[in-house]
Amino acid sequence: MSRLVVVSNRVGPVRESAKAGGLAVAIVDALRAQGGVWYGWSGDVTPEGTHGMLKTEQAGRISLMTLDIDQADYEGYYAGFSNRTLWPIFHYRLDLAQFDRELEKSYWTVNERFATRLYPMLQDDDVVWVHDYHFLALGAKLRAMGARQPIGFFLHIPFPVPEIIAALPGHAALVRAMLAYDVIGFQTKRDARAFIRYFEEEFGGTATADGHLTVQGRTVRVGAFPIGIDAETFRKFAMSPEAHRQGRRLKSSSEHRCHVIGVDRIDYTKGLVERFRAFSRLLEHYPENRGHVSLLQVAPASREDVDAYVDIREELERITGNVNGRFSDLHWTPIRLITRPLQRRSLAGLYRACQVGLVTPLRDGMNLVAKEYVAAQAEDDPGVLVLSRFAGAAEALDAALIVNPYDIDETAEAIQRAVIMPLDERQDRWRQLFDKVQTEDIRAWYSTFLSALGAAGHDTRDAIPE
Ligand code: ADQ
Asked: For the complex shown, is ipTM > 0.95?
């Protein structure tokens, strides 16, 4: 079996993968199965002008290899082009995107540096799998150095329609660089179609119905590989003593009440402000919920070096204050906002204790919270998932109550419908949802991707456009 080399911005954790999010779990699982290397940024930033050594660490059959980046790279490549340019554009937020040639240059330089350090370590029969928007150009840099191995790429965030991506200065070079990959995977069919359309419209590319895209003599495989969760393990978490304890604590803090839960990193893509407004609208339009229904929002801070993230947090605190000031009584607080990370088991317990799961991003590659909420529910008394049509998860989870998160009234009505939904309808919808979560799980995700990569043609690698 070939050695697997995974490249992603963040590497690990390997041992505490139970605490980490889905991606780390998936990568560890895939690497354990066939042995391999996990390569990326160490998470450490060195003073400007110093580029750290390659650090290696062995964890069973997995070799972890990481590089530091210096302060200038951190600001240009990571906080800059990745998080201030690509992240907003790929989530359709041109209004928040920052364009700057210096940031772009730093991005290409860091992609090249990571490729340069990786290339000599590659063995002839390795299979390389690159992840996410931080490394769009890494494959092209490896190819330019002479790499002939199969190299696949998976994008965890949405790929926007061509009209949006065309607003990115330098888009042609960047998106064309992706043709160095043999398989290019997206979360949804919609994203895969947008990528193909980009090449059809900008470069006269053509595609077959089964996703073989040909551009100027180079053919690559493009497809949807929806990421999932480890449904069985998460379900066990939800039934663990720790989860029970957490659920009991929540319930005893507010007897006979219905809880609505949201769990998201604080990010403008997650639709948190709209969600809080919809919850407030629920209390206005359906006053019978006052004193009875509360929203528990778990929202750890992220990327606080980007202004837009700090603004969102302040806005959420402001709305929480307003809504609570307006509606609270002695025994009931409408919105509770928790901004610290929780253990996976505690989180699972909270999902299970809450009758409504509110997942309403304005745009999201997949959204694993939607799947975790479903997996955590009790079969005999499941909660209801309210899901944004703009989350990749909505493509498969269509038995949820699907909403347009920009429509505050519609979202408020969906929460109301969820709160009063009869048991048989809840069970019926949950069974359909859980079936999808179980079949499109984390193992299905990486094994279908890796088998597509194993089967990918490589006879057009000499025609990769510059
Ligand atoms: P994210 O934008 O981070 O991921 P998401 O898919 O929802 O979004 O995953 C978040 C993970 O963090 C979940 O597993 C969740 O349980 C966990 N989490 C959130 N808040 C937490 C808290 N307070 N404590 C502990 N854990 C918490 C990106 C893309 C998504 C895509 C994933 C995977 O933006 O669209 O689904 O990658 O491909």
From this structure: yes
